[in-house]
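G., the chain you wanted modeled:
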Amino acid sequence: MKSQLKKVFTTTNIKSFSRNLLYDIVGSIFFGIGIYNFVSAADFAPGGVTGLAIILSYYTNVPIGLGTFLINIPIIVISLKTLGKNFLGRTFMTVLISTVIIDLVCPLLPVYRGERLLAAIFAGALVGVGLAIIYHNGSSSGGSDLIIMSIRRKKPHMSLGQLTMTIDGLIIVLGGLAYGDIDAILYGFTYSAIMTLVMDKLMYGFVSGKIAIIVTDPEHTAAMNYTIANNLTRGATVLKARGGYTAAEKDVIFCACSRSQLPRLHSLVREVDDDVMVIVTSYDEAYGRGFLPVDSSR
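Predicted structure as tokens:
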């Protein structure tokens, strides 16, 4: 028994639990303020389970946090087989903390009762920040996220964007019907757009960049590698290739760089080879030397 307790209460486990708890509390504070202090008094329902909880609260006076928690319980149970107990255990902890903050902490703060459009914008921004913090730590706010993830596990070909818009859109429209106000639907979609924009920007926008795929003749490869390393302080990966039409030997150079470095990169490779082909695509995250540390991807 003692040995089992020692395994549970190791220094690593305690640090991990403390870190998860901190992220959940901070993320839930942003999330809760956005929902309770901005959305609840603006008479519109956002997407997701939180939107259902706000509609439920409108008709029954059940606290928003408690309503969110009660709706999440069957969703978590149903998703257990598909998503696994570890992830859902983390999600349950996050949902429980956000419930406490929404119902017990946020009522202590003033509620915004001004312009509904401003409420939708600021609520979307605050919730986007909160969800970015929660998702970055490997957890989830539960609700429609779990439903979408479960569906995607069984039917991976289905579009994530379409699933999200379908579920959230139905709840937003339901909120408009509940409030009897077409503007409630418009504010709901405004909230969702701002939330998604802020969340994606925080999670990917500051670490995302560009990948230049450079196709050139082998005799130019060494000079290109040198000029990229010397002028941009970037490395590159070289692959051997063959032209599909000409059958000529080619080198393909992969180089990941920031958005601001891309114009300079394009100019540098043109100076080496006038006939170079440059294909540009984007990446959300990159791990390794010169980018994010590898252990941050875990």
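The longest helix spans residues 11-39.

Shout if anything looks off.
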